Amino acid sequence: MCDVEKYLKIYKEIKKLDPEDTLQLVLEAKDDEAKDFFELIGDFLLQQKQKSVIKGNLF
Questions:
Q1: CA–CA distance from 9 to each of 15, 27, 29, 33 (Å)?
Q2: DSSP-assigned letters across all residues of 7-19
Q3: Which one of 4, 13, 27, 29 is separated from 42 by 20 to 30 angstroms, measured CA to CA?
Q4: Burial environment of residue 21 by CB neighbours within 10 A (0 to 12, 13 to 18, 19 or more)
Q5: 2-58: pLDDT as tens digits
Q6: Residue pair 59/53 in contact by the 8 Å Cβ criterion
Q7: C-alpha count within 13 angstroms, C-beta hemisphere, residue 39
């Protein structure tokens, strides 16, 4: 079994990333798989911000 608390802590840290941070991670990724992973994280964080803007009628 995986250590759920460990991954929840990682998730909380990832949620703190700014778009510039995820861009830096993508640009400095050592291989295509890592680059794809960081792009997915950036997309996820952008989607979450979009949802909150739409929900708050802020557009």
A1: 10, 24, 22, 22
A2: HHHHHHHHHT--H
A3: 4
A4: middle
A5: 999 999 999 999 999 999 999 999 999 999 999 999 999 999 999 999 999 998 887
A6: yes
A7: 8
At residue 21, the pLDDT reads 98
The position carrying tokens 């941070």 is: 21
Q: Which long-range contacts (CB under 8 A, 24 or more apart) does 53-59 make?
A: none
Contact indicator for 42, 23 with CB cutoff of 8 Å: yes
Q: CA-CA distance, 47 to 38, in Å (whole number)?
A: 14
Residue 59 confidence (pLDDT) above 80: no
